[in-house]
Amino acid sequence: MSGPLLSARGLRLAFGGVKAADGIDLDVMPGEFLAIIGPNGAGKTTFINMTTGYLKPQGGSIAYDGEPILGLAPRAIVRRGIGRSFQLPQLFAEHTVLENAALAIAARSGLWSPLTPLLRPAWRAEAMAVLERFGLAPLAEARADALNEGARKLADIAMAVALQPRLILMDEPTSGVAAAEKMSVVETLVRVLREAKVTAVFVEHDMEVVERFADRVAVWNQGRIAALGPPQQVLNDPAVLRDVIGIEPAHHA
Ligand SMILES: Nc1ncnc2c1ncn2[C@@H]1O[C@H](COP(=O)(O)OP(=O)(O)OP(=O)(O)O)[C@@H](O)[C@H]1O
């Protein structure tokens, strides 16, 4: 049967005395949704940065679809099929939502320039189709800086999806999103990613989101994976509750 889509072994990276990655081994299987949880500074974003070419580990290896990817530039990694979204959405503020999505499509074609989306109607049509999948079509002509945080997060992820990844890494897709719209934002992005058969790794602080949407949870602590397994197992582990989530097991009914 098919092996892991992403396979990290022995990843190490220290910033001065801080071990942001201290021997990370992780396999992500095709089609799975894997949540990464853990306290601030545990090294969650560092893992995403190493996997997407933004940081180079001092040791270890990463294979994607059976091929080593360490040392490749971020753009080359995107071309291999790995997308990402950021904790703070990376949208072009003064452009419309549609233009932002069209820019991503233009970038995929290797023909990026600030004016390209205005020049190629086909990119705009494809961008509109992506926005429709995310329920963002009504906001297509809105400027990116006029969106609320939920729509901004979805638009950022739509740009990553427009690049047609097989794997997406999302850094806190719900952070900053109002509580009332959080679940609908996650439902939308999970539906789109599942429909497109995109495998997902996402950093998440909301345990309800993790419990509902993750197939497996990896618990990061001080640059290491402290626990890994299905949500119902990991989120009921007394050590995880106490040390990582910061609640006493007795209080978790
Ligand atoms: N480029 C960098 N230069 C120096 N130190 C860094 C750098 N990137 C991360 N660190 C440090 O490495 C550690 C891990 O950071 P990282 O951002 O990966 O944690 P995190 O688990 O994503 O935290 P958070 O939940 O706060 O986003 C932290 O102590 C951080 O200050």
Write the layout of secondary structure elements.
Layout: E1 6-15, E2 18-28, E3 33-37, H1 44-51, E4 59-64, E5 67-68, H2 74-80, E6 82-85, H3 97-108, H4 116-119, H5 121-133, H6 149-162, E7 167-171, H7 179-195, E8 199-203, H8 207-213, E9 216-221, E10 224-229, H9 231-234, H10 238-245
Parallel strand pairs: 3-8, 3-9, 6-7, 7-8
Antiparallel strand pairs: 1-2, 1-4, 4-5, 9-10
Helix pairs in contact: 3-5, 3-6, 5-6, 6-7
The site of adenosine-5'-triphosphate has 12 residues, from strand 2 and helix 1.
Pfam families: ABC_tran (PF00005)
GO molecular function: ATP binding; ATP hydrolysis activity
Keywords: ATP-binding, Nucleotide-binding, Transport
Q: What would you note in describing this structure?
A:
The chain is α/β, with parallel strands linked by helices. The chain has one domain (6-251): P-loop containing nucleotide triphosphate hydrolases (Rossmann fold, 3-Layer(aba) Sandwich). It has ten helices and ten strands. The chain has helices at residues 44-51, 74-80, 97-108, 116-119, 121-133, 149-162, 179-195, 207-213, 231-234, 238-245, and strands spanning 6-15, 18-28, 33-37, 59-64, 67-68, 82-85, 167-171, 199-203, 216-221, 224-229. It has a six-stranded mixed sheet, with helices on both faces. The chain has a four-stranded antiparallel sheet with strand order 2-1-4-5, with helices on one face. α3 (97-108) packs across α5 (121-133). The longest helix is centred in the last third of the chain and has 17 residues, at 179-195. The chain is globular and about 50 Å long. The mean pLDDT is 90. It binds adenosine-5'-triphosphate. Adenosine-5'-triphosphate binds at residues 15, 18, 20, 38, 40-46, 220.
